[in-house]
Amino acid sequence: MNFVCNTDMTERLKKKVLIIGAGIAGLEAAVQLMNLNYDVEVIEKENFYGGHVKQWFKTFPDFQDTKPLIDLIAGKPDNLNIHFGSVPGFAEEQNGIFHVITDKNLHIHADAVLISTGFELFDAHRKEEYGYGIFNHVITNADLESFFQNGFPETGKLSLRFGFIHCVGSRDAKAGNLYCSKVCCATAVKQAIEVRQHFPDSEVYCFYMDMRMFGKQYEELFQQAQEKYGIHFVRARLSEVNQNFDQSLLIKVEDTLTSKPMKMSLDYIVLMSGMEPSVSSQSIATLFGIALDNEGFIKVSKPFIAENITEKKGLFVAGTATGPKTITETLNDARSAALAVHQYLNSK
Amino acid sequence: MSDKKFGFSIHSDRQHNLDLADKRLYRKIALMEPSLQRCIFCGGCASTCTASAFTQMSFRLISLHLRRGNLKEVKSYASKCMLCGKCTMVCPRDINIRHVIVLLKKEFSGNEF
Amino acid sequence: MELTGKQKIWEKYQKEIPSDSYYYARSCIRQNFWPGSENTFIKILREELGKDIKDEAHHTTCTGIAYHSDVVPLETTMTVVARQFSLMSESGYEHFVPSCITSFGLYTEILETWHEHPEIEQTIRNFLKESTGRTFEKPKFLIHPSDVIYSLRYEILKKARYRLINIETGRPLQCVEHIGCHYAKMFPDAGVGGAEFPHVLAGMVEAWGGEVIDYPERRSCCGFGFRQYLVQANRGYSIANTKRKFESMEPYKPDLIVTNCPGCPYFLDRWQYVISEMEGKIYGGDGYGIPALTYEELAGLVLGYNPWELGLQMHQVSVEPLLRKMGFLYDPADKYVVGNQIIQDRPDHPDVLKVL
Asked: Is B19 near chain C, with CB under 8 Å?
């Protein structure tokens, strides 16, 4: 299909990179590429930048506020050329130039494209037995972050019992996701501590299959959660949630370390929803004609050495669009992608 | 109630109700030996334990049962300990296990603090 | 509790239920426990709603109890089931309606097995041919009679003489609905509403004016099983399960329990007597207990049928308090009438549970 070019190619001095997705991966890559003297244009489906991190209250393990962190990453946001509320509707590559048209009918011609469309949280409604959307006070990790940011609804109770349920929608054949979402264990510990800080009279339990505290200072945070905040960790998998006569929630687990079935009443249950490949990532993969891996994330060219390169020349990928990552890993991945784009454009 | 014989009796429910667990002893011990709260039930203590080779002793289970309010089990296990200290040497979370046992033995022998 | 979440699940697990031409396979034990129920089902379908239902005389037990008790090998059970299907096709029907819920689960399981392993289906075809000379067709639809009543609940409502409303308080009757495990726990898609929050009985109760109680042990098994309770000494295990359900539902003060399995109402009804004798505990009804009904009996009451023709005198827990709450007009003297004769003997009264 032929297309009309707005500018004469020989007149363009800077090479152009199109970045799809203005979460922290897209922002970091944009800033790096701009520093390398490329012309960067970003399209973002929401009307804000910062993606999921923006909706999170504080980071782990250091409890940083996310807003200043995003500002630090984005630098001067006015310098960034971000088109909000836009998604790509059409994409074609010819002679090394990508022609993309957004749903708002904006035409972009780019020498390289970077996909950083991120993840989506597992929809906890799908675990019917956990009662999300059925019983009051069954919430997800995302709902809890929102409560921290915007305030908790009134409960009328002074001392609340919280239960955190690990691995919701992850490591679960019934949910269709066998992989581990990596960050939820550390998030659960962080949120458990935040609950204890917010509600000093509360009792907090975490129900886990494993405690994946792999990162720097994570294990120390776990220990602090136990010792300083008295949070109880129970190795048990939740089977079903019911409601007591007094409207509190009743859970059934097996206390694996004593080999006995166990039940307890809770006031709030927090389901740690895992990361899933985003619908945006999958539809963009279809648009550009690239493959997904067998978990549904965007497939990378080679493990270890080429994790930002897709099967299509000039098309790159960064961030959680290829799989679950921490903030540190996402930012590192974005810088690595920027370097890969730079190397590619330099050799053109 | 009647004295009819039915040929069977109603089985008791072995599901543990954590709402009813008496955690007072755990909290008391944790106050006096706060490191106990760090336990992750890895079982390092139980694997090296001198007494566990020949009796039903496991500090991991004491640590668990304390938190579940199963005081009978705690007392039974604790009575088997000979305070050799091997568990305390191997604990990766650096819990002063011997101190916990001493506190428990004092508690069960009737010496209140 | 937010109803919208449950409604989304019910919408997800919808099942196609044919509206006529039913081949009815009665249950082996259900007719002994609840003699009025199956006849009531046939009566409602034929006389009230003008449906075509075949009441087969030549079928046998499906051997589900034997299969679940490890007494009969699965291949034999499958061959017996194949014969049932053969009788169905022979009568010219395609919609198989087994009265018992264990049968329903068994037939579902067998059809699924044959679907995934066609070689097993072929083996069974050979077995049936060799032993009886018969061939069979698989049913186009396998549905439970409670599915049928569920799909016709609004038709029944149109002819209803009574609602599930307490006339003394004007409030809906508080109903515990208990669904047999074999209905949807094995194959959630086989049940209306799925496995977690099945709708088949809840829909009936709600349509007829009652309110469903959601109590913590709602999804638990009543403990009927088969193998454990066949041996008297093991029954302590079964009764403990039912007791757990009673303990859980007690604070909600249920007016009645409705079920769709043969064994479940048997347990939920009779064990109240046993628990009262063993532990002196009665779970409600001011000492009369909580009546446990089958859904056919409930439908029959809503339609205003004579309770003694429904077989309610066979219940251990007296149903009269419920009838009084519903404002039901009935003749107490009819309770011990058979044909034209009045039976003079009366059952012994329990020591603890109050009966009428």
From this structure: no
Minimum distance, in Å, between the CA of residue C244 and any CA atom of chain B:
8
- Beta carbons of B29 and B17 less than 8 angstroms apart: no
Position B15 in a domain: no
What is the residue type of A135? Answer: F
Residues A251 and A138 in one domain: yes
Report the neighbours of B using a cutoff of 3 or more CB pairs below 8 angstroms.
A, C
DSSP classification of residue C143: -
HSE-CB of A95 using CA atoms within 13 angstroms: 5
Contact C277 B2 (CB under 8 A): yes
A47 and A132 within one domain: no
What's the pLDDT tens digit per position in B71-110? 999 999 999 999 999 999 999 999 999 999 999 999 998 7
Q: What is the pLDDT of residues C95-144, one digit of tens each?
A: 999 999 999 999 999 999 999 999 999 999 999 999 999 999 999 999 99
Cα angle C216, C264, C148; round to 5: 95
- Judged by CB atoms closer than 8 Å, whether chains meet at C5 and A243 is answered as no
Q: Are A25 and A338 in contact (CB under 8 A)?
A: no
* Residue C133, CA distances (Å) to A60, A266, C86, C87, C124 in order: 72, 61, 11, 12, 12
**C-alpha–C-alpha distance, residues C246 and C240, integer Å:** 10
Provide the shortest C-alpha distance from residue B61 to chain A (in Å): 8
Return the DSSP state at A258. Answer: T
**Residue-level pLDDT at B113:** 43
B1 vs chain C: nearest CA distance in angstroms?
A: 4
- Residue A3 maps to a domain: no
**Number of separate domains in chain A:** 2
Domains of chain C in sequence order:
19-143 (1.20.1050.140), 153-342 (3.40.50.11810)
Residue A139 sits in which domain range?
Answer: 124-274
Domain count across chain B? 1
Domain boundary among A256, A274, A292: A274
Task: Indicate whether this complex's ipTM tops 0.85.
Answer: yes
* Residue A98, amino acid: F
Q: A321 with A194, same domain?
A: no
Last residue of a domain, one of A274, A289, A305: A274
Q: Which residues of B are less than 8 Å from C277 in CB distance? A: 1-2, 4, 6
Residue of C nearest to A239 (CA): C196
* Mean pLDDT for all residues in chain A: 93
Residue A291 lies in a domain: yes
The mean pLDDT of A330-340, rounded to a whole number, is 97
Chain B contact for C231, CB < 8 A?
no
Rounded Cα distance, A40 and A77, in Å: 13
User: Looking at the partner chain, which of A131, A240, A245 has a beta carbon nearest the beta carbon of C252?
Assistant: A245
Whether A195 and A319 map to the same domain: the answer is: no
Tell me the average pLDDT of chain C. 93
Q: A93 and A149 share a domain?
A: no
> Which residue ranges in chain C fall short of pLDDT 50?
none
Cα(C4)–Cα(C220) distance, integer angstroms: 23
- Residue A19 — very low, low, confident or very high, per pLDDT cuts 50/70/90? very high
CB contact under 8 A, C278 and B10: yes
> What is d(CA A68, CA A57) in angstroms, rounded to the nearest whole number?
11
Nearest CA in chain C to B4: C277
Inform me whether the C-beta atom of residue A157 falls under 8 Å from chain B C-beta atoms.
no
When pLDDT is cut at 50, 70 and 90, the band that residue A305 belongs to is very high
Q: Is A316 part of a structural domain of the chain?
A: yes
pLDDT tens digit sequence for A160-217: 999 999 999 999 999 999 999 999 999 999 999 999 999 999 999 999 999 999 999 9
User: Which residues, listed in sequence order, are joined to residue C54 by a DSSP beta bridge?
Assistant: C23
A17 in a structural domain: yes
pLDDT in tens, C186-240: 898 888 988 888 999 999 999 999 999 999 999 999 998 887 788 898 899 999 9
